[in-house]
Design brief:
The complex is a heterodimer of chains A (326) and B (105). Chain A has 326 residues and is mainly alpha-helical. Chain A is built from 13 helices and two strands. Chain A has a two-stranded antiparallel sheet with strand order 1-2. The termini of chain B are far apart.
Chain lengths: 326, 105
Amino acid sequence: MVNVASFENLTEQEKYAHFMERINKGEKIEAEDWMPDDYRMNLIKLISMHGISEIMGALPEKEWVPKAPTLHRKLAIMAKVQDEMGHGQLLLRVAEDLMKPLGKNREDIMQDLFTKRLKFHNVFHMPAPTWADAAIIAWLVDGAAILTQTMLLKTSYGPYGRALKRICQEESFHAKHGESLVLALASGTTYQKKMLQEALNRWWESLLVFFGPKSAKVVGHSKVDINIKYKIRSKTNEELRQEFLTKYVPKIKKLGLIIPDETLRFDEEKGEWVYQEPDWKKFKEITKGNGPMTDNRLALRRESYENTKWVREALTHVKDKKILVG
Amino acid sequence: MVKEFYQEYEVFSRRRSDLSLEHRFSILAPNLEMAYVLAKENFFRREQIHDLWVVKRSDIRKMTEEEREAFKRLDNKHYRETKGYADLPSKWRKLEAMNTGGEVQ
């Protein structure tokens, strides 16, 4: 154990060794702790993308708030949209504290989003044309997100783990909400069943892509290895995808739906699911900012940001009125 | 303007009157009142709470990494804790045996 009482006097190598010792002991790293640059940069990349995806992810669902079929459904989907924005707020706070030493803040995150430098999740570039799409998003997109986020609960970065703890609690409501939506449609009229099947067909490939490629070779880059080394994450993309298939394929079949992949089967020998590889090139293009709904959703976000600018300006003139306690 | 617009606030809440305050998370807000409003909106859309505090982060003195490490090494405080007195039942038994003139030792 290095003598940390004189931490300032340690060389960079000694600081790194101490950092790795903490990581390997399962200790959590805090925002002001010493950390290697690549740890910080990977966290910023991962968490700012996660945070902004929560915010962009609220947009396809928000379209369905005015059109929800009953009052109960309207209240529930509205609550979910609020939760997603809240998750975005939590995660952006985590990213902002990491960016602070680099002189960056929330304004930079928003500008990076508008100029497409900051990417958001592939699924949120896609259209949600029917109520069944809202159901598939809530059940399966959130289901996929829950698996990823549960894996990340044990992350080596303390603030991220604490944010995720809260997020996962609220996500369990989203999963129930989604399950309730698909159950209603699957036990409804022929038209409702057809609508649900069509939504599943639209989303299936995106759902497989959600977890990312098997290896860096597929898309030319990947941060998975370094994230595992620093215990930021504990499972690979493929492990998560396999978990997703094991959890949801039987349920999808039970609903009477057909999965749009004839090659999908569980290989007993290998003990894993075999599936049709998604078109990774197409999805790389989408996350680069060229998806069917990318510009539309970014325009919505930008418009909202611009329209509320006067509120932010007005608030700069408000002085704190102290409410004294005790 | 934008750079200084947001301040960092830490959010604490007390779930019930018989419980201690708990740290919830941090939040960005332009002033204390907005921090309170946003904290309520952001963290308590479902759960009931008894009390809510927002504190400007710059007013908080936190532990540094060194201080946290140094604090860990303060051990051997058994004399301050009940677990440092685990031998009491056997001492009672010994005393009892001694007083009844039974087999001492």
